[in-house]
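Continuing the batch. This is chain 6 of the set; chains 1 through 5 are on the previous pages. Same settings as before, nothing changed between runs. Recording input and output for traceability.
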Amino acid sequence: MKYRFNRILIIDDSSTDRYILKRTLSAGSFSEEYMEASTGVEALDKLTLRNGSILPNLIFLDVNMPVLNGFEFLDALHKIHVQLNKQIPVIIMCSIRDDHDKARAATYENVIAYLIKPVLMEDLEKLFDGNHFSQTA
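Output for chain 6:
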């Protein structure tokens, strides 16, 4: 089976939201491997421990998380992307539409979309069909 991405990292403090997104992505054959993190700190640890090897091709990131929120994670990711030798595309997820957060997300070069949870299959198909976001390398 051909997948659009080798690895997807899902960062969300809600285990339920992570589970739902993973099921939706799996149903659409978006990736052969899923990594999960419940906090931005845990996600950064996973990324830096991999030290550029076997990194995800895409990150789904919840904005509202304790300890390190989505924007703080993006700032930290920006600082380490040279070390990772890779600019990883990020899809921001939020429980409610917030125009301020959406505008702020657009200021990050690697943010490719802002989606409202729960992320639906039609949202993913609309985002990826007609765009060149598939990265199976």
